[in-house]
Amino acid sequence: MYKFFLIVFLVAFAAVAQAQTPNPKFKQALADSLGADEYGMKMYTLVILKTGTNQTTDKAVLDSLFSGHMMNMGRMESMGKLIVAGPLSKNALNYRGIFILNTKTVEETRALLDTDPAIKAKVFDVEIFPWYGSAALPLYMKHHDEVKKKDF
């Protein structure tokens, strides 16, 4: 039994010691510029877009709303607020897509979402959640144009 506790203690001690080892790749200026905490993480807002109450089938109306939706996403991205966006495959919960926004409050998030024509018209409803993720997440966007062949 003594050996068991000794092994557990040594494994736990090794894990704590390893966790406290400084990261040789750490860049303080980069961490500060991205708002990273000591774990390289920060709070964002996760928005789940789901099918709304507006069930219009008018193609011209939907085309206009989705065009405005895409323009609004581009605007939020240029502001540094939209970090991740994308559609979801068909599912039983009627979830349609996600946004990860670089916002600090629900009020700031709602103000951005209120500028989206598809949300305002209730084609989409939203669910909003605080989300803790890598502070480096915004850096992937600068490479997106290098991997896409065409726009939507």
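(the above was protein one; protein two follows)
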Amino acid sequence: MFGNMADMMGLMGKMKDLQSRMKEAQSELVNITETAESGGGLVKAKVNGQKTLVSLEIDKDLINPDDIEMLQDLVVAAVNRALSDIEPKIKEHLQKATDGMLPNIPGLDLGGFMK
């Protein structure tokens, strides 16, 4: 009976460690960045691992009041590409942060902890 209680306490301790490690890893995501471009480099968007747009560069030659739709499309494309490209970096960072804390379960996605 006492063995089970000790196992349960140990498990609770591991979960607390995992939780604090995940919190720390999530706060570090601000330092992981990805930059993507569209329009052959005329628009560049930089996002961080917390999926926040941190900078946007637009070539001045693109600024044309008569063709604002093209500029909007290029901005959207660059931001979406950067957000898509940062995903593997986020996953890798979170996996490294929790390495050895969890059994290797196929299909386990730690990205859900970020929401």
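Reviewer note on protein two: The chain has a mean pLDDT of 85.
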